[in-house]
């Protein structure tokens, strides 16, 4: 059977072998953010149907590079003790088991950004990811002992890395400069949308 | 006298005519963030001497376009009621006087991003700008009645607009694609650095 674009997307959802990846399951609590709130946020980042299309195309380019992208980001984290401490043991020593356990979810995140519909399941899972950065849920998924909370300032500042370092990866398939720019634009908007949702547990409901 | 690059920078600091622009004055409370913390944040966004150089060059391109850039952003805000409410009166009606009063500071912010040294004065003023988005200080600078607080989710999501819409403006001086990309990269990192600092009042000290 010839695999169509739709098949590829379906394949991406066959992720039951990723430990702790609970997307779309009853293990994920409902997001306090409504789909109406999400719609306003999509407007705020200027993310419309065109950006959605370019993000899908970015996903086609990033799919096979998703692991290399995560390795690249983790190399940047590993080189900065104030960042690597959040994936290290409580003694500050690297914890390869933690890194190995969380990596497939990080790789899957790259694919999900580009391919998932931004619906209720997606919204709920962004809430879950946000919680997993904070003292509410960090370390529990993998049963590890590590720093209990990633400060908001590093969540936000590292977003600059997640965005900007992706640009060269988007050139891998020979798209024109203009096409890469559109994919990159959609990627940056989508990443900011994710991080905005992940920031929700850090502020009081009336402040967020 | 021939104006050198240094003179241009000096000229940019002659901003005493901007009402409410208190950069470098004793009206600005000290930031709770130390210069050491700032250094870690600069590392986290991968903002080093090269980025600083490209940001200076971006500033040369954006300087004369700073007002047009702010007008562009404000047009995007005006078109979205859930964003424009934060610059409107309490009755939801536009408040042109508020917009007119705050605009020169917004324009100056574009120039400051690109030209100011990121020192203690700069750090303190980012704290002040952060506070001016929140119920701690919003509306006081201009003595207006408006919504008392900009939610974190709109501060963060609109950052995507501040970043991505600047790209076309960076092409105005005929730089190569590669040069524009470097300027844009530095701009995005610098903007994320600013917004990370502005987010500080939204979270508890142990969470930020």
Describe the protein in words:
- The structure is a homodimer.
- Chain A is built from nine helices and no strands.
- By secondary structure, chain A is mainly α.
- In chain A, helix 3 crosses helix 6 (about 95-115), helix 4 packs across helix 6 and helix 8 (about 150-165) runs antiparallel to helix 9 (about 175-200).
- The longest helix of chain A is centred in the C-terminal third of the chain and has 22 residues, at about 175-200.
- The termini of chain A are far apart.
- The relative contact order of chain A is 0.17.
- The model of chain A is unreliable at about 1-10 (pLDDT under 50).
Task: Jot down its keywords.
homodimer; 208 residues; mainly alpha; 9 helices
Task: Give me the secondary-structure topology.
The structure is a homodimer of 208-residue chains.
Chain A lengths: L4 H8 L22 H10 L4 H14 L3 H13 L2 H4 L11 H20 L4 H14 L18 H13 L12 H22 L10
Roughly how much helix do the residues of chain A carry, as a percent range?
A: 55-70%
Structural class of chain A: mainly alpha
Order of helices and strands of chain A: HHHHHHHHH
**Multimeric status of the protein:** homodimer
Counted by DSSP, the helix tally of chain A is 9
Radius of gyration of chain A, whole Å: 17 Å
How large is the share of residues in beta strands of chain A? Answer: under 5%
Q: Give the overall shape of chain A.
A: globular
The description of the largest β-sheet of chain A is: none
> How confident overall, as mean pLDDT of chain A?
93
Question: Biggest interface, which chains?
Answer: A-B, 45 and 45 residues
Low-confidence stretches of chain A: 1-11
- Count of extended strands of chain A: 0
Amino- and carboxy-terminal Cα gap of chain A:
48 Å
């Amino acid at each position: 059977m010839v695999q169509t674009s739709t098949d590829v997307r379906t394949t991406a959802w066959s992720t039951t072998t990723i430990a702790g990846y609970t997307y779309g399951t009853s293990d994920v609590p409902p997001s306090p953010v409504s789909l109406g709130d999400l719609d306003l946020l999509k407007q705020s980042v200027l993310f419309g149907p065109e950006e959605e299309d370019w993000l899908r195309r970015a996903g086609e380019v990033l799919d096979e590079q998703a692991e290399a992208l995560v390795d690249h980001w983790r190399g940047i984290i590993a080189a900065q003790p104030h960042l690597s401490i959040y994936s290290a043991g409580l003694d500050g020593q690297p914890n390869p088991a933690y890194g190995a356990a969380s990596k497939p979810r990080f790789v899957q995140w790259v694919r999900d950004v580009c391919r998932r519909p931004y619906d209720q399941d997606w919204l709920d899972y962004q809430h879950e990811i946000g919680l997993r950065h904070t003292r509410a849920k960090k370390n529990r998924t993998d049963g590890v002992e590590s720093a209990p909370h990633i400060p908001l300032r590093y969540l936000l500042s590292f977003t600059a890395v997640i965005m900007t370092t992706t640009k060269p990866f988007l050139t891998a398939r020979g798209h024109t400069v203009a096409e890469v720019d559109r994919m990159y634009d959609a990627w940056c908007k989508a990443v900011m949308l994710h991080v905005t949702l992940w920031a929700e547990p850090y502020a009081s409901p009336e402040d967020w």
